[in-house]
Amino acid sequence: MKKTLLGYIPEESPVYQLHPLTRVMFLLIVSIYPMLVAAPEWNLALTVLILGLLVYAKVRMNTIKNYIPIMGSMGFIILISYTIFGGYEPSYIPIGHLGSLTLYFQPIRWAIVTYMRLIPMIFVVIFFFSTSRERDLIVALRTLRVPFAMTYLVGMGLRSVGMVMEDFQIVREAEKARGFDTRGKSLFYKLRKFIMYIVPLFGLALRRSEEFSNALTARAYTFRGLLNQQKRADYVLSHYHLSFVDYIFIFTLILALITLVILRYHYGLMGVESTVINKLVLQ
Amino acid sequence: MEIVRIEDLRWKYSEAREYTLKGVNLFLEEGKFLGIVGPNGAGKTTLVYTLNGLIPYRYNGIKKGRVFIYGHDTEATPVEKLTSWVGLVFSDPEAQFTSMTVEDELVFGMENIGLDRKEIKARLEWVTELTNTASLLEKPPYELSGGQKQRVAIASVLAMKPKLLIMDEPTSMLDPIGRETIFEVIARLKQEEGITIIAIEHNLELLAAVADDMALLNDGQIIFQAQTREFFNNYDLLIANQIYPPEVTQMAGILRKEGYWPGSLPLNIEQARKQISKSLVRAV
Known about the structure:
The complex is a heterodimer. By secondary structure, chain A is mainly α. Chain A contains 10 helices and 4 strands, in the order E-E-H-H-H-E-E-H-H-H-H-H-H-H.
């Protein structure tokens, strides 16, 4: 397994046959699909498809359980938001009571629709970061001719996540060694004392930025462009080539997107009115 | 050919009360290996920062005197040009990593100086073989061991083929095995590539084995510069400046004070053995 932002990615995976750009296109385009589809059953089908892809990509499936609490709490928040703060319209159909609160069918249906839109989106992101390293993202951006400084900034942003986490651990251990420990204290106390970690972290970040700036200067980097005004070689791209399969894959993704738009907005399919929930509850 | 010439260099950081460098004069010929030693706070890092333009381009302060690299005044030369001549390896390798994989790290500098892909590939093969880093190319640099990180840091600078390679305490964060590995790389660089090298190093045993010349910097001034053997022969001067030569040199220095050690001081056990054997033969 290779380490990446979301833990580890498989050493060998059929997904690596695809160019990083194709994987980024998959992330971007497939993330749009659930926004076009309101019927939860279709989004459920998409989720199952992505889960199947995760298995096919040899991603360790037990890592998925790490995201279940997030998905659970997200679902709960959405449900509460729609049922309690969902408002009222005369067309709403009451389906029960919770104490003095009347539960209506439409807000709950919208909660389900919204939740089922988010789930495949989350799984697409999980799929991407479970099969791609930071470098893949940079390669994809450079393939799209995004300026070097911007892709570099993205790379550094990704790297700094790990660096800040590492620094935070160091600061926490150092403060713990000198008797400052928030374990077992109340949440309010922890929040109040968080400044004790932030100040040294901020100082470390400033020092790192200076070291970093020196390192860039020492390696002949300048925002004015390359030393001899040549085009940047982008050597990393020499390892990757868009194949026929990549073109077919991207074309299929775009075609599916166009098809969805037509089905949804021309023929009115996959809308909230035609969901299975409607049929089950209203009939 | 003279590669470095420093004339009466003085430097004061804007926030400091005193000058860090107080009239440094130094020269170095092409192909030579110069070791710079001195106690902490002597101004060693500041001195090397003046060679690749980090001072005065990246730091605020007052600079007097002149620094020449290949006859070019550093203050009148664009910093990116200077950095392509002068490669600097920092003491903390992690602080100089700028990329997500070792390969990207090695390629970064080469792309900055405008090399094409063919040349980058050739240099990549050369530098990874030289520094034994070929097996690390796919790895993120921050996941390597200390010795590996430092080798990658050296390789990333070497790949730019600088005319002058400066190493600022390259083994300060390494264990004894890591230190020896780095010095093996440095020895190869000197023997096979003939690169001009300046190294700041506290481990004098390893440094003495490879340096042609040594310079002692203390309190912002070059106290003494000489060929390595002659440098360590000035035992009392070094001790007075808190510089402790290799243990075998120290032992011989003490014996010489007591009148038991004739001739120059040895830098390693082999030299000491030869001198002792010669003395014993004479005595017998």
